């Protein structure tokens, strides 16, 4: 009993000591390493404040801002069947399991064992009558061991695993956002190809009519053969452009198939004649708190926290490890003897170990952990600074493209009128066909530039959504 009391007192003291920790307290690092503070607003848009990472905010169905039900259906497939997202989700489950494994180290380990043996032999040494002797033996035992977390090594390991789990969750959100954005970009590219195919097809039909006009005029000796050759050249060039656009469309369609987890050979996405390049309006006062929703920033910050916990784990190696153990065993020649008091044995133990000399290995591990922490801080700062750059670029691009689209619309309307006027004048014999060719080429170029600018505004909106972490509304 005195031994039991002493061991109980020692265990109580160890439990109290286990509240100690030798790891550094974690503080989220500043985004900039210099003393200069981040600006309160973005250059490209007023009314934005500085943000901090927060990866737990729901990003919402941001793609619905583009107003395309077919895109909505494809994104739903990406969320379920995309293999990049599936891999990130598996990594997240692995990180969650690692947290549970680390947490289990806080509790005792209990083992149960049992055995049964039967032995026998023959000869004069075992029996006076020269017969045989056989015997059997049963054993059962139970043991428990526990290493109190005196210096916070286990708790720091748990904190690091939790931070890694949160980083993995952010990686999953980032993979999902990236795949959704990539699908939207490819879908818009496909729809742009469809619109250009339709535009160039109508242009080819117009060029065919122009060729017929020049052939009729040449046959009537009104126009030279060079007009026919020019019209033929222009028509063949437009038809060649049409074939290139069909190849581009097929490439986008195959990319979409891979993103939604389907074989490209069996995937078809029909053209949508009713499709129009709808550009979501960007609210003038979007707050920079949306930058908190960038999963890459959240993941980088959580990895800083995990690296900080690793420093505590490395420091704990300088302190002794102490363990408690308890074992009980019983044995007998029959199963009934296992439960008799005379067959039972027990033991209680207290162990301690301390490394006295390791030629600086522990110190080197602490320095490694500190260096890893510094590297993760630098990665976090670089990620955050790049995010601010990304948002600034996309905001500027959205403003510039809006103005550029208006100018291209004016240019395209004027080119259409010029083309029709010169074609009418050519029919009346007032201008050379060279003027018509030039006007038609300019009109087609202006129409395609206008379409490209419209889709560019859409893709810039998608890029801005991704730069902000997804969605426009902070309360989403």
Automatic annotation (TrEMBL):
<keyword id="KW-0732">Signal</keyword>
<keyword id="KW-0472">Membrane</keyword>
<feature type="coiled-coil region">
    <location>
        <begin position="228"/>
        <end position="262"/>
    </location>
</feature>
<keyword id="KW-0449">Lipoprotein</keyword>
<protein>
    <submittedName>
        <fullName>NodT family efflux transporter outer membrane factor (OMF) lipoprotein</fullName>
    </submittedName>
</protein>
<dbReference type="InterPro" id="IPR003423">
    <property type="entry name" value="OMP_efflux"/>
</dbReference>
<feature type="signal peptide">
    <location>
        <begin position="1"/>
        <end position="27"/>
    </location>
</feature>
<keyword id="KW-0175">Coiled coil</keyword>
<keyword id="KW-0812">Transmembrane</keyword>
<dbReference type="Pfam" id="PF02321">
    <property type="entry name" value="OEP"/>
</dbReference>
<feature type="compositionally biased region" description="Low complexity">
    <location>
        <begin position="113"/>
        <end position="135"/>
    </location>
</feature>
<keyword id="KW-0564">Palmitate</keyword>
<dbReference type="InterPro" id="IPR010131">
    <property type="entry name" value="MdtP/NodT-like"/>
</dbReference>
<comment type="similarity">
    <text>Belongs to the outer membrane factor (OMF) (TC 1.B.17) family.</text>
</comment>
<keyword id="KW-1134">Transmembrane beta strand</keyword>
<feature type="region of interest" description="Disordered">
    <location>
        <begin position="111"/>
        <end position="138"/>
    </location>
</feature>
